[in-house]
């Protein structure tokens, strides 16, 4: 396959915007990033003047999209439909996410993810189980009837699938440190969320294998002067924190403060998208409840937030426009940081030789012009 060099555009690297350089793509991979003058002979040049190239977005929390909810249909067909819906908004890698449900649903979801990974389903990089080891005090839209106490039989099911990642959101105070270490040793990426943990309990969980926090601020105690709680532990630690930047889950001022406070930059945009994402739906069903979509906010009749209607391109735009982030930082939170959390940064999440050629192309207004997966430049 003849290499193709994309020239004339702006390349978004994790730490800067790069001008005057070409991105060379061949056989589905990025093979070179070089100054235009250093292009090797024989490459096909394609001018993308006026466009900005970024890695494809990576979403670690996708409950649904395109009218499909993973909890309703934990199957490979549902995974494919959800992935296709979010691909239209720049997401080229994702974790289908199962909100707390029955053990039978968990089994089906894990099997579907394993099947999808074996078949190289486009965009699928594993699965996220949000629950069932959560705090009844901080259940949010989750049904506490589905919460479980960790036992040997259930724990035996929980291991990273072949060729992919298993992310698990849990309340650390509900899981003994021994079991946290056991899950972590199996390759499970542990994130604290839907938790009532104290600061001390959270710090202990970080020592036991928790390396992330799910939708920071939401479904956890607020940070107070004499009760810093999990938020303070998250911000001062080296763990990654996911944020839902839809303007509804967390006030933008708090997001700006948190991002500035996290000196290591380990902040991640997630959508927490429900089935309505990518559709014009004004309501949908979840666990026997009617969830209404009003002005981008998903909530039940009691006003409890139920996931979001957010897409990753909108999260990146809001990062720039509402959170005052440079474009490369906002994109970094949707690409390199989630890849780093999962440990797949060598192959996804940045424009560097050896990485998959999953790319998004933006114009000056941050409109999504094209999405390329596996180096298929015919889509550009």
CATH topology value of the largest domain: TIM Barrel
Structural class computed from helices and strand pairing? alpha/beta
| Backbone shape | globular
Number of domain units:
2
The count of β-strands is: 22
Named at the architecture level, the CATH assignment of the largest domain is Alpha-Beta Barrel
Structure description:
With 380 residues, the chain is an alpha/beta fold. It folds into two domains: 4-54 and 350-379, Urease, subunit C, domain 1, CATH 2.30.40.10; 57-342, Alpha-Beta Barrel (TIM Barrel), CATH 3.20.20. Helix content is 24%, strand content 26%. It contains ten helices and 22 strands. The protein has helices at 76-87, 103-118, 152-157, 177-185, 199-207, 229-236, 252-261, 312-321, 327-332, 336-342, and strands spanning 4-7, 10-13, 16-18, 21-26, 29-35, 44-47, 52-55, 57-62, 64-65, 68-69, 91-99, 126-130, 165-170, 189-192, 210-213, 240-243, 267-269, 283-286, 289-294, 297-299, 359-362, 368-372. The strands form five sheets. The chain has an eight-stranded parallel β-sheet with strand order 8-11-12-13-14-15-16-17, with helices on both faces. A five-stranded mixed β-sheet has the order 3-2-7-21-22. A four-stranded mixed β-sheet has the order 5-4-1-6, with no helix packed on it. β19 (289-294) and β20 (297-299) form a beta hairpin. α1 (76-87) crosses α2 (103-118) and α5 crosses α6. The two termini are 17 Å apart. Keywords: Carbohydrate metabolism, Hydrolase, Metal-binding. It comes from Parvularcula lutaonensis. This is N-acetylglucosamine-6-phosphate deacetylase. Residues 52-364 form the Amidohydrolase-related domain. GO terms for molecular function: N-acetylglucosamine-6-phosphate deacetylase activity.
